[in-house]
Design a protein that fits this description.
Number of strands: 13
Radius of gyration: 25 Å
Low-confidence stretches: none
Number of helices: 11
Distance between the termini: 40 Å
Largest sheet: 6 strands, mixed
Helix content: 25-40%
Mean pLDDT: 89
Order of helices and strands: EHEEHEHEHHHEHEHEEHEEEHEH
Shape: globular
């Protein structure tokens, strides 16, 4: 049985439209004009225990709405969601004890308390046993390198320090599921890397099922093993991140350094696209779905005495952008 299951989930919002002009003030108050916004359109997926899943989508794609329905904050207009065998929005208290959540910049830390005091408050809310609490605090402080600001009031922490504390706080009661909505937005490179490593380590140690949304594709590429791509509330892709790379990598780039050229063979006839060739450096493009590395090297070595080579796959962000551009053209 899947740990999380979404079955044909739809979420609609009723939005009030303001008519412009002073003459419409009373109409806006007593006869408001409304429209229905489809935040999520008939999505279905299943997530197994211990998975690391990334939700990708542009603003308004339905990522946060889906996470909030799984966490029990929102309920779907139609369809159903089950989390650990229960309905999260009907049994919110029971569901809350099984999950940890970090939603963007909405802090659960007490602004006037120190980080440790906020942790102590959370201990009482979740009734965490003292031994487990102390073990987790010591471990998390060490892993996220928070020793220097444990006793600093939260209002004096930097954004990176505060987000580390938020992620640690969400895992103190050892939930089986962790929801992270844009946890690294606005953070520096070092803070992002430490949070990524922490998420991977907790998944390895405690098998914490983690669902992550982010606009930073490096978060998803380095943390997640599976991605779900949403667009306009619908699922465009659901599968392993490696399968996504294989299926949507249209062209990779290979860079060769060579000692000499001893043939005028046209590389294009072998299925390669010439990008650059000067100063004993050759750069070509090729379709990895149609050409193995051995075949690539074989074609080039027929015309050049190769010294070294390296292959660079396209950035995952470029691939996702290509999917969205293709989807927009299809809708037009």
């Amino acid at each position: 049985m899947s740990l999380i299951k979404a079955d044909h989930v739809v979420k609609n919002y009723k939005v009030i439209m303001q008519r412009p002009g002073a003459g419409n003030i009373l109409k806006n108050i007593f006869c408001p004009e409304t429209k229905i916004v489809n935040a999520v359109r008939d999505i279905s997926f299943e997530i197994e225990e211990g998975e690391l899943v990334g939700f990708i989508g542009e603003n308004g794609a339905g990522k946060s709405t889906t996470l909030k329905m799984m966490s029990g904050i929102l309920f779907p207009t139609s369809g159903s969601i089950t989390v650990s065998g229960i309905c999260p929005y009907l049994k919110r208290e029971k569901n809350a004890r099984n999950i940890g959540a970090v939603f963007g910049q909405r802090s659960r830390l007490n602004w006037d308390l120190s980080m440790i005091d906020s942790f102590e408050l959370n201990k009482e809310i979740y009734r965490i046993p003292t031994d487990s609490f102390r073990r987790n605090v010591n471990r998390f402080v060490e892993m996220l390198r928070m020793q220097d600001f444990c006793h600093t009031p939260v209002r004096q922490l930097s954004l990176g320090q505060r987000m580390k504390a938020e992620v640690a706080l969400s895992l103190l009661h050892e939930p089986s599921i962790l929801y992270l909505d844009e946890p690294t937005i606005g953070l520096d490179v070092l803070a992002k890397q430490q949070i990524r490593e922490f998420i991977r380590e907790r998944n390895r140690e405690a098998h914490t099922t983690t669902i992550l949304t982010s606009h930073d594709m490096k978060d998803l590429d380095s943390v997640c093993r599976r991605i779900i791509i949403l667009s306009k509330g619908s699922v465009l892709f659901d599968g392993a991140i490696e399968r996504f790379k294989r299926e949507y990598t249209k062209e990779s780039v290979a860079e060769f350094t060579y000692i000499r050229k001893y043939s005028d063979r046209n590389l294009r006839s072998g299925g390669l696209r010439m990008i650059e060739n000067k100063d004993h450096r050759l750069v070509v493009g090729f379709a990895p779905a149609k050409m193995t590395t051995a075949r690539l090297v074989g074609i080039v070595s027929e015309a050049y005495e190769i010294n070294d080579f390296a292959i660079k796959a396209p950035d995952i962000e470029d691939m996702v952008r290509g999917i969205y551009e293709g989807e927009e053209k299809r809708r037009e």
